[in-house]
Structures are given as structure tokens and as C-alpha cells.
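Known limitations

Files may contain more than one protein. Parsers should not assume a single record per file. Below, a two-record file is shown to illustrate correct handling: read the sequence, read the C-alpha cell line, then continue until end of file.
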Amino acid sequence: MPITAAEASRRNREVCALAPIVPVLVVEDATTARPLAEALVAGGLPALEVTLRTPAALDAIKAMAEVPGGRVGAGTLVTPDDVRAAKEAGATFGVSPGATDELIDACEAEGLPLLAGAATASEAMRMLARGYDMLKFFPAEASGGAPALKALGGPLPQISFCPTGGVSPSNARDYLGLSNVICAGGSWVAPADKVRAGDWAGIEALAREAAKLKE
């Protein structure tokens, strides 16, 4: 069913409030998707973003959608075709590096809540004008990091963000301590070497550490 901007923002706020970190995942092998999701969920990170950057991404979303307690979304949405494919695969929210009217319209038509990227005041204001008050701040570090995001909060206190791009254990608390940040996106909780080795216990441990970042 179609979705309004207000409802999309409400649902994304709910997803972002589940844990301080949303794992940003680049899945190369779909057979690793389910155990990877299970490890992250067990570690306290239930909201998962699978980026549409590999041929295995859609199959990975399908597998992760079946994991109890998990909320899987599709990242790197760029076109309406991406939106439709992600929704069909089982994604419950979408994430994009930026936003176009065409992409926003497709997400609303498909009923897929969009967490759209914005890096400037003008981009954030444009999304706010369309009814979106929950956004992704991307690329976070390259756009000025936590100080830049804090500065945006002055004139735009009604917008909340999920900073992504360069967020790491060393700077995550800087972002999470801001009043306009609900969560942050990070890839360090699922390092490629641990995924290839099937070190699900190691990934669960990283997730547990990340889940405590906002305590």
C-alpha cells in the first residue's frame, strides 16, 4: 500500500530507535546472509541495511527477512527499479545516498519508508518540505562530521538524522551524543574477513559492543 511522508518518517524513527548502530552491509555471498543477520540481531543490532552494491544483495535481503527479530532494509536505492526490487525481496525500509523526486515518489507508491541522504541545509530543507523529518546524514565524515551535523541542528531542530559514512568506534559517540541523532550507520560490525571466515561469534561480540555505545 502507498505510504505518506509522515508515515515513512514515523516508521524510520521506530527502526532507528531500535539500536544505536545500524549495520551497513555489503554482502558478497548470499549463503552468509542468514547467519550474519542472526549474529547481528543476537548482539543487539536488529535493524540491518543491505546495500544494493553486489549481485547477491537481493538474495541476501530475502534470507535476512526471515530472521526472527530482525528488520532488514535495502540501501543504495537510486532508481524506482531499485525500490521495486527491494520491496519484492522483503525489505521493510529503504536507504538512499541522496534523493530525487522520482525516487521519493516510487518509495511512497510502493509503501517503502525511505531514509534519504542529505549533506547540506538545502538538501535537508527540501526533504522537510516534502514531509520528511528523519534523514540520513551522508557522507558524514566527508561532510564535516559531528560538528557539521550539530550545526545543522541549530536552525533545523525538527529534523533527526542517522549519520553514515566514515562512522567508526572512535567517533560514533561524537555523533550519538548529538540531540538531532537517533542512531548511526556503520560497517565495522561486520568486517569482511570475519564474514568470509564464518566468525559469527566474533561478529556477535562486535555487535554487542556497538549496542552499548549510547548507554
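...continuing to the second record:
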Amino acid sequence: YEQIQQHVSESDPSSQVSQVFEKSLQYVKRFSRYKNPDAVRQVRKTLSRYGLAEFELCTLGNLCQDTRGEATALVPSLKSGGRFVGKAGNEKIEKMLTDLSLIKKLE
């Protein structure tokens, strides 16, 4: 019976979609940083004010870096793009991280 069930599930496309969906859902739950949808909206809104590219916004929002060094190591385009260069740029990055930290604490 188990061999037949396994064969049917391997050959049934809807079963494969279900398995992919289930694995994806488990992955997302494991790495989910924010439990409240309002917090996610707030993170996006906060980071959008800094003129970030979508990749930068997603990376910073999801990885929850603690330091400017971590943020620029994980998102090198913050420094290479020229938007966050020098003392003023460093202060903007610090402000972004502080804003994200506050959202996470208030969740």
C-alpha cells in the first residue's frame, strides 16, 4: 500500500504542488521575523523613505541586522550606490536600523 501511495503521489502533479507549497510554508514560518502584518507594513513604509531598491528593502527588512557593518556586508549596494557614503550615510544606515529595531520591539 505504501509503495502504491508513494507512486501515486510522485506521479500526481497536484500532490507535488501541495508538497512544494507545504515545504515553502515551513521555510517561510521558520525565517519569519515579524508575526504581525501591520509590523510588516510598517517596516516596508519605514524603509521606503530611504529610497532603497526592492532587493535592499527586502534584505534589510528580513535579516534584521544589528549593526551598520552587518547591513553593509549583507547589502553592499548601500555603500557602492553612493547614497549612504560618509558620515551622513552612516548616520542614515544607523537610523534605519534603529527604526527597524523599534518596530520589532513594539510588535
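Parsers that stop after the first record will miss the second one. For reference, the second record is described as follows. The CA atoms of residues 15 and 66 lie 41 Å apart.
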